[in-house]
Specification:
Blueprint (H helix, E strand, L loop, with lengths): L7 H22 L6 H17 L6 H26 L4 H7 L5 H29 L9 H8 L1
Helix pairs in contact: 1-2, 1-5, 2-5, 3-4, 3-5
């Protein structure tokens, strides 16, 4: 019988992005000097969830995943850029649709979360490309096994 609904990795990935977005929002939205600690904890937890979903991916699949994350980061950054720093009158007219503190905070949280996840997937791909990949022998172990 086929499974219905989301796969657990999709739920972990989307939950991880939501947790990272909450961390970015906590860091941006509050003025308290202790905001950094909960923000870093939320961001770390969320990034760990997102990168944990790619634990068994091959290097080529990690590269494709990193590319998709960067495309998504660009797509989420454009509305945030239009809302916060319009440079022309037409961009300002489009940006007026996104005015308001809650909308601005949510756009910044989403853009920041996706960029942080894209960076983490790129770092994970870089590690995998040079032989450091979860669940696989380390470069030192591979050298010792070859002898």
């Amino acid at each position: 019988m086929p499974r219905t609904g989301f796969a657990p990795s999709v739920l972990k990935r989307s939950g991880g992005v939501a947790i990272v977005a909450a961390g970015v929002a906590v860091n941006t939205g509050f003025v308290s000097p202790v905001r950094m600690i909960p923000a870093l904890l939320l961001i770390t937890l969320g990034v760990a969830l997102v990168t944990g979903t790619a634990r068994d991916h091959s290097t080529a699949r990690l590269l494709d995943s990193a590319k998709r994350w960067w495309l998504l980061a660009l797509a989420t950054f454009v509305p945030y850029a239009l809302a916060t720093a319009p440079d022309s009158e037409s961009a300002a007219a489009v940006g007026d649709a996104f005015t308001g503190p809650i909308v601005s905070l949510s756009l910044e949280a989403a853009a920041g979360a996706v960029v942080l996840c894209a960076v983490s997937m790129t770092v994970l791909y870089g590690f995998a490309r040079y032989g450091i990949h979860p669940g696989r022998p380390t470069p030192e172990e591979r050298i010792l096994l070859d002898e």
